[in-house]
Write a structure and sequence with these properties.
Length: 331
């Protein structure tokens, strides 16, 4: 345990944690209501959505792939679960059915990226438009209200002071953290993202790994949309859209390379999620103009990409650098 703490204090996770603490102190000075109980709970709720999306997005990016349709997948999942609940289907089977639909979302993305060899950026952006169009047809651009009170609890009940959606996010982070750190599949996933040629030489199928992670990402994005629908008591076209950018930003802040591979662990990804949401909430609490909030959020993503670019450049340079010869022993 002591070694884990010592390693963490020397890692980029400590740097991100210090920056997050500075953000919290700054916004508290600007407005003491920032650390009020209600606002902290609001941050937890916001973290639960972007954090859930980040779980799937971060793992997919670690494997060397990307999905820019995650927000639309979550939005359509929320609309579909609301539609099913209006037909009096019990909420638990409805949730399972929509998670299965989420797996189909991921499978479609994997088909375009791995079978047809389309660029993932283009294919997933195109599918995002398709999912938004389907949601528009189902809803006619009006929210589908949910009256199932048992389903509401999925998005509203709390364990002590922690909302259930926040707990779900933390559990997911723990599960994926253990998967990546302690399993053969996790090591294969990181190798595919970090060095595809090395993975191929080791007999690891990049397409197989990324197909699994695309399916996983579709399920997780759908889960995020379902939980948000439970919290908002409705399925709406306005929900979840854009959260894939938050997920990508939090993942990059947490040490996941945008260009594939690279991971400081899910603990650091969690700190990245916390930093992003504390920053976004702080902009709201000081009543910054909404347009400038959009500018600030975009600037944060650009900054994260710049840092990731130089981090990846340094990593590649270290791989290409010739090993130093060991000094000859004196006889």
């Amino acid at each position: 345990m002591t070694r884990v703490v010592r390693n963490f204090t020397k890692s980029k996770g400590m740097t991100i944690l210090i920056v997050t603490a500075a953000i919290i102190v700054f916004f508290y000075i600007m407005n003491p209501a920032y650390l009020s109980f209600d606002n902290v709970r609001g941050i937890m709720y916001a973290m639960s959505l972007s954090g859930t999306i980040t779980c799937g997005m971060a793992c997919l990016m670690m494997s060397g792939a990307i999905d820019l349709a995650s927000g639309a997948e979550g939005m359509l999942a929320g609309v579909l679960v609301a539609f099913l609940l209006r037909t009096d289907i019990p909420w638990f089977p409805a949730v399972l059915m929509i998670l299965g639909v989420g797996a189909v979302f991921g499978l479609v993305n994997a088909f375009f990226a791995n079978i047809l060899n389309f660029m993932p950026f283009i294919a997933t952006i195109a599918m995002s438009s398709v999912y938004q169009g389907i949601a528009g047809v189902i809803t006619t651009n009006q929210p589908i209200m949910i009256t199932n009170k048992a389903f509401w609890e999925l998005g509203s009940i709390s364990l002590w002071v922690f909302p259930l959606p926040f707990i779900i996010m933390v559990v997911l982070l723990i599960i994926y953290g253990l998967l990546i750190a302690n399993t053969k599949f996790g090591r294969q996933m990181l190798l595919c993202g970090g060095n595809r040629n090395a993975a191929r030489l080791a007999g690891i199928s990049y397409k197989k790994i990324t197909t699994i992670m695309y399916i996983n990402n579709g399920c997780i994005a759908s889960l995020g949309g379902i939980v948000l629908a439970a919290r908002m008591h409705s399925g709406s076209m306005q929900s979840v859209i854009g959260s894939e950018m938050d997920g990508m930003t939090a993942a990059i802040i947490g040490g996941v390379s945008f260009l594939g591979g690279g991971s400081s662990g899910m603990t650091v990804v969690f700190i990245g999620i916390m930093m992003l949401n504390c920053f976004k909430n702080g902009l709201y609490i000081i009543q910054l103009d909404p347009y400038w909030q959009v500018v600030s959020n975009g600037a944060l993503l650009v900054l994260a990409l710049i840092v990731d670019f130089f981090r990846e450049k340094r990593r590649l340079a270290s791989l290409k650098a010739p090993a130093r010869e060991a000094p000859a022993k004196q006889t």
